[in-house]
Amino acid sequence: MIELTTSKLKPWPIVFCLILVVPFAGCGEDEALDAFIPDFSYAFIDDNNVRFSNESEGEYQRLNWDFGNGRTESTTSKSQQFEVYYPEAGQYEVELVLIGLQGDRESTAQTVTISKTDFAMNFSATADAEDPNIIKLENTTVGTYDSFTWFYRHKEIEDEASTAAYFPYAGTYDIELQVVKDGETYSLVQSVSIAEDDPDYFSKFEQVWSDEFEGDVVDDENWTFETGASGWGNNELQNYTSGLNSVVEGGVLTITARKIDDNKQPGSYTSSRMITKDKHEFTYGKMEIRAKLPSGTGIWPAIWMLGTDIGSAGWPACGEIDVMEYVGYQPNTVHATIHMPAGYGSEGKGSSKTLDSAEEEFHVYGLIWTEKEMIFYTDSPENQTFRYAPANKTAENWPFDKPQFFILNVAVGGDWGGAQGVDNNIFPQSMEVDYVRVFQEK
Question: Which end of the chain is more exposed for a tag (fewer CB within 10 A), N or C?
Fold first, then answer.
């Protein structure tokens, strides 16, 4: 007998595998999703005006236009059209750059041909044969326009087709012509060189304004009284009144400081402070003030100027020009000083000189102020007190290319005027002013 031996077999588990087949997203398909093709068309409105339309395809986020004439535009609008003016005949390359969703860029360009000149800016600038400091200017702009203006140095000359530009100092200067046409302003700049300084520059000044202090009152068309006893930034002790301390008589203005009490505190004295702000303001020129000064310890008269932008720029950024200051404890010594961001307060730039009869006689306190330098003097320009002429002018060392206004005042005490106290026995004390005169280029 044959015996068969069997064993029990364990069943194997049946595993079903589900395989998900996902299409592979390759780089080419990403690019297909983000692809864009720049294109544009244009049509002439007239001979010099062209309308541009975007014809690009695909997805993108921004369009940057360069119309080849200096005008550029950037927009996210795909349908925005642009009308562009081409004043001069010529060929202009117009470029459209598209910026994609990922920041990538594509561009296209076309050449637009303008066959007719409608408006072309130009001017000539030639040296005068007899005066090398004069440049003859002529506006030779072609076409129609509304108005034009010349700009050079600190001058603005409107609507003069031919003019003479005067440059008193050697150097290289820009001359700009601005032309306004249909509400748009166009600009052209040329540079000219001047070989030498004009030795007769100062003789070409003429009087443009003065106050001779005629009549019997302070002229309110020339002056405004500043009032108050705030210390005026220098711990001064006087209260400035609205004219009670100023008298005009016999062709002379007299500003008088008076003692009210012996307390030597703010308000113990009265005086006047007169300004020409918003009435008479000047940039450059020769300024002359003829005056006789008060005396005594604690008195502080001043003839000076401040930048008209003091309200916005502040001090010392506005610039301060002290034509004459005098402190009574230093008799017969007059001071000329300027204040600016590069040096102000006790660090201001200036100098002093001895003037033996400052309290007994009238003297002229003068300033010649040009775009090159400042010259302070007494009685005549040859008798200089101080000269300031930085070679490289900046807003820090030369905020003096803007208008300034006059100030006449007599202070009492203060950081400088009262540095040695106040002698109450000296009052009243007066500064007398014969005239204030301003001369500028003809």
Answer: N
The CATH T-level fold of domain 121-198 is: Immunoglobulin-like (2.60.40)
Type of residue at 163: T
Q: What are phi and psi of 425, to 5 degrees?
A: -85, -5
Q: Where are the domains of the chain?
A: 33-114, 121-198, 203-441
Q: Quick one: pLDDT band at residue 16, thresholds 50, 70, 90?
A: very low
pTM, whole model, 2 decimals?
A: 0.78
CATH superfamily of 33-114: Immunoglobulins (2.60.40.10)
Give the active site residue among 236, 325, 432, 441.
325
The phi, psi pair for 389, rounded to 5°, reads -155, 75
Question: Is pLDDT of 240 > 50?
Answer: yes
Selected catalytic residue, list 93, 176, 214, 320: 320
- The reply to whether domains 121-198 and 203-441 share a CATH topology is no
The CATH code of the domain at 203-441 is: 2.60.120.200
176 is catalytic: no
pLDDT band at 20 (very low <50, low <70, confident <90, very high): very low
**138 counts as catalytic:** no
